[in-house]
Design brief:
The structure is a single chain. With about 350 residues, the protein is mostly helical. The protein has a single domain, classed as ABC transporter involved in vitamin B12 uptake, BtuC (Orthogonal Bundle). It is about 70% helix and about 0% strand. It is built from 15 helices and no strands. The longest helix has 30 residues. The protein is globular.
Length: about 350
Amino acid sequence: MTEPQDSETATAARSFPGLVATARRVVPLGLFQSMVAIVLGIVICFVIMLFATADPLVAFQAFTLGTFRNAYSIGSMIAIASILAVTAFASTVAFRAGAFNIGTEGQLVLGGLTAAIIAEKLPGPGGLVQVIALLGAMAAGALWIAIPTVLRVRYRTNEILTTLMANYIAADLALFLVNQYFRDKGSGAVETPPLDESRWLLQILPPSAANIGVVVALVLAGVLWLWFDRTRAGKRAEVSGLQPAFAEYLGIHSVSYLRNSMLISGALAGLGGGLAILGISHAYIDGFSPQYGFLGITVALIGRLRPVGVLVSALLYASLITGATAMQAVSDVPYSLVFVLQGILILLITSQRIGGRRTA
């Protein structure tokens, strides 16, 4: 079947205003609502601090501004933000195509392990090996989401459940592979041998962990902006996700867009794992990810599934993560407050009426 022209899309949209209105409510796109949710979330965290420590003002100042106390902390924030942005882009691609990829953490873990193995074992120039390792990480992430994708496309299995459960399988699979085949024999931890410095991503603010992964995140933001806002294929992918029945009426094969978007989402999550290994930990270490995949979902929601919004929210969330480390140094408030904030933000942001008008 020949796909319709944009004029036909507009005509059909006028013919089915109810479908389009429903579609627009599926994916939250208001940045103002995110700002309201962030402010409310931070205020709630401060209230928690009032009961958790004797000096809440010191803890709160460290939590919100501790990132900017020195260049090293700023560099750490940039490194974390770049990974959060990439994993958030993975969630964004899936969400805007109508899929809920909750398995980004598992895809990131296997992508990181793949990158570590390739970077250690493959001979050749450092720059070339880095590229191959990152491509391998993307392939691992795409392969890991392939099974939930097939189940979703062919059998209409709920991808929320399959991708979520795949996280636990991925963690155990990575643990088994490292212990049996790739473990550093000289280390007591579950980790691969440390990578040679030639395999590390180029640092941009030494001695901090900031690296050229931030450039990758910026390029991806530009590519996704062009894809979603400036290409016909991107618009059709979004229509397919917002309202599959409406897309099929227009002659758009929504299943193809769903399948491709899920695979791309898995690849991006795997890329996030590769960036974390080559740019920060420089070896696969069990638990190297402080839930980057799950945090990426929060970042995507804060950014309202828009590439520029995701970049801003990644910087904000990364600053709170590094600020939590500073908070631990000056108070008795635990680092886990970050995860409390994550839960609060998800609850607030997924409410479509936060900071907006009531809709019927």
